[in-house]
Amino acid sequence: MATIKDVARLAGVGVGTASRVLSGKGSTSADARARVEEAIRTLNFRPSKTARALSLRSTGTIGVFVPDFKGPFYGPMLHAIDTELRRHDRHMVAANGCGHEDARQQALDGLQFLIERECDAIVVTSNALRDADYTELHGRYPRVAVVNRKVRGMGDHCFTVDHKRGGVLAAQALLAQGHRAIAVISGPHSAPDNRQRLAGFHEELARHGIASEQVATEDADFTAASGWAATERLIQRGARFTGLFCANDQMAMAAMSCLQASGRSVPGQVSVVGYDDAEIASFLSPRLSSVRIAIGDMALNACRLLLNLSYGSELPVTYRFEPELQLRESIGPAPR
After folding, report:
1. Is 54 a residue whose pLDDT tops 50?
2. Comparing 315 with 1, which gets the higher pLDDT?
């Protein structure tokens, strides 16, 4: 396998000159550059990534932490980041939460894994981490971006959506069809984005005279299994509702299946609205109405910020992501 010394020897230049041509940094004459480029082609030279990393003090990788590799929420985020990095000849190192510790410790361990891999920057999304954890990480690792979370003091490094507004849109979708008997399947109360969307949902209902105490509520954990179990509990306790808001699509999909298995038609007897607008939502029967959260766009712009900070790029970065209601067949008029 050819080395940089072989290239320099064939081109009749010093190793330093050959290295400057390869890196694109530093001045070289047009003649020397042409001879080095011809030598590279002749020898089919491929520079060592390890040597390049050592010389540039860069690994060419950006780390990404997500709590889980499963489900429809984190997949689009990882895909957006990986696609953008490959466009710029960079690569992704991904870590997720696993082990027997609690979710916060799993996230801290995952971040430490990425730091030990000497990633040039890190994208992180986690509801389990505290604001203090994020700011401590930012202090140690300035090139960090947070997705789906606003952390005090980190301003331009955070990429999120107005989840409270998303909750308002979900409530408006049910109210517009005349629903007054409403139930909710909540995600974990420890998750800031869950609390925000529920706050918006209940505030909009209150504006129309429906107090939160009138809303039958069951807690779940964003998984499909928990959504099914929560729907069963609503049915078993005799809750009367014609409209159901689920705090994410996985729970909403399971809720629709559970309702239909129990003999309740959707949307004939119960209208259902989800949250996130997972790709599969528009291929269900009935198709699921959902509040769209642009997780892929948030992740893409977080990645672009880090590319700019790490490699001197000048990619456009936006921080404005508006939730949008995707109205489909799972919502219909409230039954008389």
Report:
1. no
2. 315
Neighbours of 286 (CB within 10 A): 18
Is 12 within 8 Å of 21 (Cβ atoms)?
Answer: no
Res 4 pLDDT > 90: no
In tens, the pLDDT along 232-282 reads 999 999 999 999 999 999 999 999 999 999 999 999 999 999 999 999 999
Residue type, 69: F
* Residue 299: Cβ within 10 Å count: 28
Q: Which domains does the chain have, with CATH numbers?
A: 4-56 (1.10.260.40), 61-161+295-321 (3.40.50.2300), 163-293 (3.40.50.2300)
Query: Cα–Cα distance between 134 and 126 in angstroms, integer?
Result: 10
Q: Which residues of 95-117 are buried (b: 16+ CB within 10 A; e: fewer)?
A: bbbeeeeebbebbbebbebbeee
Largest CA distance in the chain: 89
Pairing relationship of beta strands 324-326 and 289-292 according to DSSP bridges: antiparallel
Question: Which residue blocks in the chain are alpha helix, DSSP H?
Answer: 4-11, 15-23, 30-43, 49-56, 74-87, 103-116, 131-140, 163-175, 192-207, 224-236, 249-261, 295-311
Asked whether 273 and 173 are in contact (CB, 8 A), the reply is: yes
The rounded radius of gyration (Å) of the Cα atoms in the chain is 26
Taking the C-alpha atoms of residue 91 and residue 230, their distance in angstroms, rounded to an integer, is 40
**Predicted confidence (pLDDT) at residue 25 exceeds the cutoff of 50:** yes
Question: From the centroid of its chain, how far is CA 125?
Answer: 7
pTM of the model: 0.81
